[in-house]
Amino acid sequence: MLGILFIYFIGKAFYTLAEEHDKKRWLWAILGVLSYYVGSAVLGALLLITFVLLGMNIDFDNINQVPEILLALIGGGLSCTGFYFILKRQWEKKVSGFDDFDDAILDDI
């Protein structure tokens, strides 16, 4: 239940950001939630590769789930937050040279 609320707030943040910048709202909300899951998976894969390279034996049957969940939250949260601020900065950046373009110039030809 807590995970559903977490996904809702991530989607809502991306939905609002896309709405402010006249982008496709649902597309960016879904991509924001996917960025959370991708970040969680990438961090998990990196940790697994690190453990294998260091020669640590991992007993998957007896793993404590609390650190696993916390690491997934950290990896997903960092990737989601990074993706959000990259989109925000990119969308707020003005394209130089095209903002002051006068449409009437084309009509004079």
What number of domains? 1
Could you give the order of the helices and strands? Answer: HHHH
Low-pLDDT segments: none
Strand content: under 5%
The largest β sheet comes out as: none
Helix percentage range: over 70%
- The helix count comes to 4
Secondary structure tally: strands = 0
- Termini gap: 62 Å
Shape: elongated
Radius of gyration: 21 Å
Query: What do the pLDDT scores average to?
Result: 84
Q: Structural class of the helix and strand makeup?
A: mainly alpha
Topology (SSEs and partners):
Layout: H1 2-20, H2 25-53, H3 65-92, H4 104-107
Helix pairs in contact: 1-2, 2-3
Describe what this molecule looks like in 3D.
- With 109 residues, the protein is mainly alpha-helical.
- The chain has one domain (2-90).
- The protein is 73% helix and 0% strand.
- The chain is built from four helices and no strands.
- It has helices spanning 2-20, 25-53, 65-92, 104-107.
- α1 crosses α2 and α2 packs across α3 (65-92).
- The longest helix is centred in the middle third of the chain and has 29 residues, at 25-53.
- The protein is elongated and about 50 Å long.
- The termini are far apart.
- The model has no long low-confidence stretch (mean pLDDT 84).
How would you summarize this macromolecular structure in one to three sentences?
The chain has four helices and no strands. It is mainly alpha-helical and 109 residues long.
